[in-house]
Design goal:
heterodimer, A: about 240 residues, alpha/beta, Rossmann fold, 2 domains, 5-stranded antiparallel beta sheet, about 40% helix, B: alpha+beta, Helix Hairpins, Heat Shock Protein 90, 5-stranded mixed beta sheet
Chain lengths: ~240, ~325
């Protein structure tokens, strides 16, 4: 690693926070600790970190509120939720609010480290992309360098995961990709552990880019198989990929 | 708004009002028409039609019985629903309470196996893991005692115990196991007050009181403990400087699964068992427990009253 990445660690359990700090520092990350909701909010306002590991149940301010604030201030910042809440609704809610990944306690240390590594890799990969490419489909524009997107509900900045998912779908235009394939390609872990994660992200992308998210025309569901990206009829692939300065 | 309109209690009341209205109309109609019916009866040639009153009274009585029955079922069902909801919350909070220490133990074990840390770090990790197992074990104690209380299966092994010595030893042990500063607790010396208690249950009681004082301390854990005789009883006052208790909550705190809205909104985790266990164990030991607080942010006092042991004839003053 040629640069020291800083992780905001929001965890109120003293012993978990100590163990996580120990391990993440051993991996070469710098840790900014926050042991309750208020401290986390202050840290978020102050900024200066590259990734957030966020517990949901916290004293004073709950994790969802912190996540909302993070998204207001830093649309692209990778956020990993690490919580003992294990109901599907909590997971979906967290992902809907803009988290990139979700792990439940107790967790495997190696898996956590791999996921964090993957999120940082994605982020730096986007940072390192050369010319500003703008990709268009229908009325939408996405710039995969800046992650700025203009869709049906106006301008926004995609998170690294949203961008990665959209890009993967576009790369395989016309082909059906299963949830498992998408999990492996975008999130970097195999298996069908959290296939609903993909659904939550697809719902997010549709709300950004589909004129009518209930009747999608770009990101289609293939019942029982997965998802597939298509362009509207009449749009040619080669004409649309312009390279702007 | 629509959810409020269709609240079950409201529907129930409306149905009852409608039903009662019809019953009243029927009675009024009956009384107004009784004379006419009698006249009609006489014309037809019937001599005695007076049994109409019996129909009215019998009918009304039957209707009232049905009303009582339905009300009883409704109240019972509402209570059941509330209890089910509490139990659901309980299961979700207890899983959280179990999972957090478990996650930490797993993390340290995996850390040790992955990184082979130096002896000093390993020592620290082992201490942290022991603290977590202590947390797990107290929680399981609470669950066991609560279930014994609910099914009335508490069997006590009573022994005379000098309360001051017992509390002093408990505090020293608890500080070591749970990792808080022993200087945070001040215990006023008061030797010679003996109570008959089951030591195991008494530890569960003290554990919960201290654990609450730590948990709701806002990071500033201070506990003052004073023991004093009160007639034939002994009173122990545990005063903390924590987040305090709203006066409306003072009694509810001891109900099973109850957690105050303040603790929920502050995100402090708990099972809703601790004080239920404390109050019932105190009762089983022939005593009681009460809570006092000037309000939120002003600390709280838990007063444990236990009967003095009979063998203690001479009291020191």
């Amino acid at each position: 690693m040629n640069r020291l990445y800083r992780i905001l660690l929001v965890e109120d359990e003293v012993s978990l926070a100590r163990g996580l700090t120990y391990n993440l520092e051993a991996e070469g990350y710098r840790i900014i600790p926050a042991s309750d909701g208020l401290a986390a909010m202050e840290a978020v306002e102050a900024g200066g970190f590259d990734l957030v590991v966020l517990d949901l149940i916290l004293p004073h301010v709950d994790g969802y509120k912190i996540l909302l604030r993070i998204r207001e201030l830093y649309p692209r910042l990778p956020v990993l939720i690490l919580t003992a809440k294990l109901e599907e609704g909590d997971r979906i809610h967290g992902l809907e609010l803009g988290a990139d990944d979700y792990m439940t306690k107790p967790f495997h240390l190696k898996e956590l480290l791999l996921r964090i590594q993957g999120m940082i890799r994605r982020m730096t990969w986007y940072d390192g992309r050369s010319p500003a490419e703008e990709y268009r489909f229908g009325p939408n524009r996405v710039n995969f360098k800046t992650l700025k997107a203009a869709g049906v509900d106006g301008e926004r900045t995609l998170t690294a995961k949203e961008a990665a998912l959209l890009e993967t779908l576009i790369e395989h235009e016309g082909d059906v990709l299963s949830r498992e394939q998408l999990l492996t390609e975008v999130w970097g872990y195999p298996g069908d552990l959290v296939t609903r994660t993909v659904d939550a992200f697809i719902a997010r992308l549709r709300s950004y880019f589909e004129p009518d998210p209930k009747n999608p025309v770009f990101i289609l569901s293939q019942r029982g198989l997965g998802y597939r990206f298509v362009r509207p009829p009449g749009e040619e692939r080669s004409d649309e990929e312009e390279v702007k300065q | 708004m629509p959810r409020k309109i269709f609240h079950p209690a409201l529907i129930f009341i409306l149905l009852q009002v409608t039903w009662f209205g019809f019953l009243s109309l029927w009675i009024v109609w009956f009384i107004q028409n009784k004379l006419r019916i009698e006249a009609l009866g006489r014309q037809v040639g019937l001599r005695d039609v007076g049994s109409g009153w019996f129909i009215l009274i019998g009918g009304s009585f039957l209707m009232l019985m049905i009303l009582l029955g339905i009300t009883f079922l409704f109240v019972f069902q509402t209570r059941e629903a509330r209890f089910n909801r509490l139990q659901r919350d309980f299961i979700s909070s207890i899983t959280h309470e179990l999972k957090s220490p478990l996650a930490s133990i797993q993390l340290y074990l995996e850390t040790i196996s992955l990184r082979d840390p130096p002896a000093e770090d390993r020592r620290e990790f082992i201490d942290l893991m022991l603290r977590d197992t202590e947390r797990l074990s107290s929680l399981i104690d609470n669950m066991l005692v609560a279930s014994r209380i609910r099914y009335g299966k508490v069997t006590l092994d009573l022994k005379p115990v000098d309360l001051y010595q017992f509390i002093r030893d408990f505090m020293a042990q608890s500080a070591a196991h749970h990792g808080w500063d022993p200087g945070a607790v001040t215990l006023g010396e008061r030797k010679g007050l003996t109570v008959m208690v089951d030591e195991k249950y008494m530890e569960v009681v003290l554990n919960n009181i201290v654990d609450n004082a730590v948990k709701y301390s806002n990071g500033n854990f201070r506990l003052r403990v004073s023991i004093s005789p009160a007639g034939r009883n002994v009173q122990v006052r545990f005063t903390d400087q924590g987040m305090g208790i709203h006066h409306k909550e003072l009694k509810k705190l001891f109900k099973v699964f109850y957690r105050s809205p303040q603790t929920r909104s502050l995100g402090v985790q708990g099972s809703g068992l601790g004080l239920f266990v404390v109050s019932h164990v105190a009762r089983v030991l022939g005593g009681k427990v009460a809570a006092e607080s000037e309000g939120l942010g002003k600390g709280a006092t838990f007063i444990l009253t236990l009967p003095q042991a009979r063998t203690q004839e001479k009291r020191e003053t």
